[in-house]
């Protein structure tokens, strides 16, 4: 989507749905205890409430919200993409609008700003939404606009990751791995916290979206998720540096 927007010079708009899960309509019967402070005067405490709509904390809430939103989009002329269930496309003689949905975050782009504004107006009338204007930050991705197109980075994400592993004061490395160095599964002693290793390497995997230069080194580290050694942790620290 970023590539299309950059190529055709389309604007990227971001919307946020307020209290998204509260819009969901439950398909199952769900009961809950009377909430403290809202107990019924006429019914004793052992009575329960039958929910008519979704609430935060329900396992069904994310699905109910997604069903509610995606079932409304066809009324605006959108069709779900066969390539990705989170992408919706509206095509007409007036132009094209693309809508991306991630839980309660919505990205809109297209060939006509008039069509995009019409979609935003229709969505706002149906759901309580906040128009965040031009897209600048989405799922850890920072988007900057230049005369040549878009620049996508993850500086904030990287800083948070480096803070997490306490490597801000370490010396930087020019390369993510040593030349001709191959990681081995039985190289050295086992690392005391495999879960921590998996967490950090998983975070680095997401970083390869905007840092393809570390992709090979991260792939090497991923091969030892089940039983990391101290030597593997040293290699991961070099990637971070």
Helix content class = 25-40%
Total count of strands = 11
- Give, in spatial order, the strands making up the sheet with the most strands: 4-5-6-7-1-8
| Helix-strand makeup class | alpha+beta
Strand content: 15-25%
CA radius of gyration is: 24 Å
How far is the first residue's CA from the last residue's CA? Answer: 31 Å
The sequence of SSEs as H and E is HEEEHEEEEHEEEEHHHH
Please state the oligomeric state of the protein chains shown.
single chain
- Report low-confidence residues grouped into runs of 5 or more: none
Number of separate helices: 7
Largest sheet: 6 strands, antiparallel
List the helices and strands and how they pair.
Elements: H1 2-8, E1 12-17, E2 31-33, E3 48-50, H2 61-72, E4 78-80, E5 87-92, E6 95-102, E7 105-110, H3 113-126, E8 129-134, E9 137-138, E10 141-146, E11 149-153, H4 155-164, H5 194-207, H6 215-222, H7 230-240
Helix pairs in contact: 5-6
